[in-house]
Input
Amino acid sequence: MWNFIKHNFAVRGWQRLLYAFIFILLAWQLSRFWGNWKGSCGCASIFYVIHAPIHEIGHTVVGLLCSSRTAIVLAGSVFQILTPVFVMASFAWHKDYPAISLGLGWLGFATSEMGIYMYDANIGQLNLVTPFMDASDLEGDFTVLFRTWNCLESGCRIGEITVGIGYALVFAALAMIIFMLALGFLVPPER
Output
């Protein structure tokens, strides 16, 4: 197992710069989130420009396939979370194990941003994306879901827990990058 880790996770050469940059980027994004996400405008990471359209595509795809309102509403967040999971699986499939750290960071921010959306379920302060609807008639996905599941009053607590899980995933990505960089320095290259 140790030989597998040494061979596949140590970053050397130009990869050190790349993963140092990814580390700085993830840490900077996390510092922007930390303690600032409960405001009326929420907080968005750089990954938001990727997973926000994916979220909306999830609603659309499932809306074309079924008529269940719950499934359609839930699909946006499911797509938002599964996309970085599939990206990490693709990295693993192609044996690009260090790149999994980037996917893990993306998953962490996607989860944190979903948690912010959950937190806002019974507050209703976030500006919602309304590509095909009048904003005055719009409720957030988790307002609809939590009301359906009779847990709307717990939305803030559920959101806080979800944001915490997202933070933990980002911290795991940062720890993985530190480990990979240290491994690259400590383990001599194989000849």
Q: What stands out?
A: The mean pLDDT is 87. Residues 155-186 form the longest helix (32 residues). The radius of gyration is 19 Å.
